# Entry
Amino acid sequence: TGRVNIVHEAVDRWCEDETQGAKTALIHEREDRVRAFSFIELKRKSSQWANLWAERGLGPGDRMFIFLPPGPEIHLAMLACARLGVLFSPLYASLNYDELEFRFRDAGPRAVLTHPDLIERLPPESTGSVEFFFLSQGPAPEEMWTMDRADDRPETHEPAWVDPDTPLYLLYTSGSTGPPKGVVHAHRDMVGHLVTAQYALDLSPDSVLWTDGDPAWVTGTVYGAFAPWLCRAASVVQGDPFAASTWYRTLERHRISVWYTTPMTIRRLAAAGQDLPRRYDFSTLGHIASVGETLSPEAFFWVKQNFGLAPHDTWWMTETGMIMLANFPATPTKPGSMGRPLPGVEVAVIDALGRPQPVLTLGELAIRTPWPAMMVGIWGDPDRYQSYFRTEEWFATGDMAVRDEEGYFFHQGRNDDLIKVGDKLLGPYEIENVLHRHPAVREAGAIAMARGPGRVEVKAYVSLNPGYTPSARLNQELLTFVKTDLSAEVPLREVKFVAALPKTRSGKILRRVLRAGELGLPSGDTSRLEDDAGDG
Ligand code: WT7
# Structure
């Protein structure tokens, strides 16, 4: 018919067969409470919610914010919205007042689904667009609706049959400059979700996938929900904050077969020692993949040693909506590489004019347009959307990369922090990498700063491992360490010792915040900053 709905393909379709429909689709664990949903239960619950919302008149063209603590209600709400053709935006439960205010003003949602514990955090001045406040559990004050009332609603709701380009979800992602942007994705992304889950994550109907990203981070939205369900696989969601023992227990208890994680998680597990993983049984694990930042050779070999499986790095971004580069389960992996393009995806390294560059040349990572899960817009900002396209055919990612003779890509940092040393371009990543090799260094972030016409200096921020204290001597030692390894010409003038580095919730060092601090400027939106409490 030319009309689609992702919920039909991901959930309802399986319910046409009783055995398939009875299969577990979602396993949610939080504070030792495990709640499991079959495809039939997901269909039933999301239909009841959709019915309650449809009675209020919500449908295509409307937007709903999902602002909930960890729980399967987030996933039910995503499905109920998609079923109705309503654009949903999952928000991190930890967003602060300003961050919430910006999002409400920017997207002007007609409805919000929240929780009694979070409702007071909503910014009253900025929720003018909201007609309907729903609470995931009751009782609800007068002007609100509790989802408990959906329990007596009909258990079916036919999906709205929409054009493939109909908006599905909206996620805010920080740029290196300016406020965060609302990336809009559409129902047609499902083609990319399905194929990438099969090729890059090795999913089949027998798989039990654990994607350990927050549902408000694109990795959690896509690979914690839609992608596994399109493959009729089970998705495990762990709602507890990070602890190494919780992570190992989750892998064992739910008999995870595919684990999609991040280098940050791997580093934290490694920091908790070699002893702990020996006490658990990971024999069901068949594939481990990683995303979000460079998977260092150290992290690569640590995983290999402790799980008996090599981790497979993948590359993509909120804007691409699906995995674009991967080390595939079926082909050799290269430690340090992000892998090769998914079948049908064309990736190149381009120069400033959008011209593809030969192998082993540094340039900007670019993707030939279009591809199935390409974003359909930046909410309310067509100019910003256009600015991604270097030429009509190349989507410029802002990441720097090199491709080798075998077609494997290597990440070289973001394009905004590159410095020139002699006639060579050097990224902050190389400097950080050297610092990481020094025994005193726990984390390192390097930024390039203009210090006058044509003069750029690098400043490194470093947090130290236990047992080391900041000193002028250690400072000098680290400077020498970097220059000896890279080049005496590296204009690294200073190492600043800090207790912790500003990071996104997915573990990327926020160089933007370091730079802003350096310039005495406000650091902009930090909604994707990791909260200190969670930083093991
Ligand atoms: C940025 C996008 C869920 C998608 C990933 C996060 C960086 C992503 C890698 C990797 C080095 C990586 C890039 C990209 N990044 N994967 N394998 N190696 N860097 O999506 O939060 O939108 O961030 O993450 O710099 O531009 P995101």
Notes: The longest strand covers residues 394-403. The chain has 14 helices and 26 strands.
